[in-house]
Amino acid sequence: MNPKVDFYFNKAKHWQEELELLRKIVLDCGLEEELKWGVPTYTLEGANIVLIHVFKEYCAVLFFKGALLHDAHHILIQQTENVQSARQIRFTNPGEVTELKPTLKAYIYEAIEVEKAGLEVELKKTKEYTIPQEFQEQLDSVSGFKAAFEALTPGRQRGYLLHFSAPKQSKTRASRVEKSIKAIFDGKGLND
Predict the structure, then answer these.
(1) DSSP 48-107
(2) Could you tell me the pTM of the whole model?
(3) Boundaries of every domain in the chain
(4) Is residue 118 exposed (0-12), middle (13-18) or buried (19+ Cβ within 10 Å)?
(5) 59-63/47-54 β-pairing
(6) 95-132 pLDDT, tens per residue?
(7) Contacts with 130 (C-beta within 8 Å, 6 or more apart), sequence order
(8) How many angstroms separate the CA atoms of 56 and 140, rounded?
(9) Distance between alpha carbon 154 and the CA centroid of its chain, in Å?
(10) In 3-state terms, what secondary structure has residue 140?
(11) Whole-angstrom Cα distance, residue 28 to residue 53?
(12) Which tens digits make up the pLDDT trace of 148-179?
């Protein structure tokens, strides 16, 4: 156990018992415990394997390369349709954690083997995402805007494309593009 991570477990107002059980299970699999993104993250030789996090309705173990795991028990959940690699196992009570302990450990050991084998999730390329018309119009008409967007990292580009594509109304899409122009010129991502 890493003392730097204790605060996360101590501050939890909900899911306390589930978190303690999950922490013991994950640590029993021989992973290093670190604090990344403000949550307990478990690594193998510096590579992220799983993390534990809480939500209002559940707590979960997230597998960074969960899409590569053989989900024989059909318990891995893709958080949203845009999540390409990570998968979660969700828990809503201590009994579920206890019941799934052997299965959870098997999934963790498989995730470790995936990492040792150097397997990678093949991510959808930025050019495969739909470019909303409202964004394309700005790319074509604002001087230097296309070059500024193309200079962003692929992850930042995808973030913007998903953000711009989400609204159903053209007016909302156009507004999102307008609000993001300066940040894109500044080389910043959606959440920077």
Answers:
(1) EEEEEEE-SS-EEEEETTGGGS--TTS--B-SSTT--S-EEEEESSHHHHHHHHHHHHHH
(2) 0.75
(3) 3-116, 126-185
(4) exposed
(5) antiparallel
(6) 999 999 999 999 999 999 999 999 998 888 877 888 99
(7) 161, 165
(8) 43
(9) 15
(10) helix
(11) 18
(12) 999 999 889 989 999 999 999 999 999 999 99
Q: Which position has the higher pLDDT, 82 or 70?
A: 70
CATH of 3-116 given 1.10.1040.10, 3.40.50.1910, 3.90.1150.200, 3.60.10.10: 3.90.1150.200
Amino acid at 8: Y
Q: How far is CA 101 from CA 25, 31, 63, 75, 131, in A?
A: 7, 16, 15, 13, 43
DSSP symbol at 19: H
Unique residue bearing structure tokens 């495969």 = 128
Please, which residues have CB within 8 angstroms of residue 67's CB and are 6 or more apart in sequence? 78, 84, 85, 86, 87, 121
The partner residues of 53 in beta bridges, in order of sequence, read 60
Give the HSE-up count for residue 120: Cα atoms under 13 Å, Cβ half-sphere. Answer: 3
Judge whether 21 and 98 are in contact, CB under 8 Å: yes
- Which two tokens mark 164? 């711009």
